[in-house]
Write a structure and sequence with these properties.
mainly alpha
């Protein structure tokens, strides 16, 4: 008699589980409702985009196009956002082997280095871009953050000011103006810029988290509490890549509330 239980392949792999994973994977790919070719950099992502679905979709595409630089870059970026840095590095390396002068790849290599804590290496990548184009907005903004991390506020401010002169992307302008104001210790201007971002998109989670940071840093507790309520309503039950930042802010709020911060 044959068993009616779950079938297993040689080596103990449960076929039913395998088929379920395959169906789930296909479902994720079918649910992907954005143009992946707009997702060249991490800042192109919003909380509405399913990063796992982007990974599955792009992985399938790269099987057929293993030397497609755009696909390798997109896959590497998705892995980077997911915190899978080793996989991201591998994809960026594949892309670099095909086109070592591609500015998008070099920028993402810089961001990956910075995320991994290798600030000097990140700066070196960005310098390569800026040597070719001193007005490259992406590189200027990220280099400004590098100087900010290195506590060089004057250099960070100068780069932000340079980029803001020619940038025409309203959301990016407000975000970086907020950072510039913060570096100059003008929290009021920073809050104003972030609120303008939210006028453009009320569901901009990064702007709301940044507002929380400023409110807590300035110990404007009532505004933080109000912002937390709005954020909870916006998020609902959905997950967010900003969860660690949100949870950290909650911890800081508790410390302030208890008089220990």
């Amino acid at each position: 008699q044959y068993s009616s239980g779950p079938k297993e392949k040689k080596g103990g792999i449960n076929q039913d589980d395998f088929l379920k994973k395959l169906r789930d994977k296909k479902k994720k790919v079918l649910e992907l409702n954005c143009d992946i070719f707009t997702l060249k950099h991490s800042y192109n992502y919003s909380d509405e985009i399913d990063v796992a679905a982007v990974i599955e979709y792009t992985k399938d595409k790269t099987w057929d196009n293993p030397r497609d630089v755009s696909l390798l870059n997109i896959l590497g970026t998705a892995y980077m956002i997911s915190g899978e840095y080793s996989k991201a590095e591998l994809e960026f390396k594949k892309a670099t082997n095909v086109d070592k002068h591609n500015a998008d790849i070099i920028y993402n290599c810089a961001e990956l280095s910075i995320r991994k804590g290798n600030i000097k290496e990140g700066a070196e990548y960005l310098s390569v871009i800026l040597k070719k184009d001193k007005d490259d907005l992406n590189a200027l903004y990220l280099m400004a953050i590098v100087f900010y991390i290195m506590n060089n506020g004057a250099q960070a401010s100068a780069l932000l000011a340079q980029a803001l002169k020619t940038d025409r992307d309203a959301v990016r302008v407000h975000k970086n103006y907020a950072l510039l104001s913060l570096i100059k210790k003008n929290s009021e201007k920073s809050i104003e810029a972030l609120k303008k971002m939210l006028e453009i998109n009320i569901k901009n989670i990064s702007a709301r988290v940044a507002l929380q940071d400023i409110y807590l840093g300035s110990k404007i507790v009532d505004s933080y509490v109000n912002e937390e309520k709005i954020l909870n309503n916006v998020l609902g039950e959905s997950e967010t890549v900003y969860a660690p930042c949100i949870n950290m802010n909650k911890g800081v709020f508790e410390l302030i509330n208890n008089g220990t911060a």
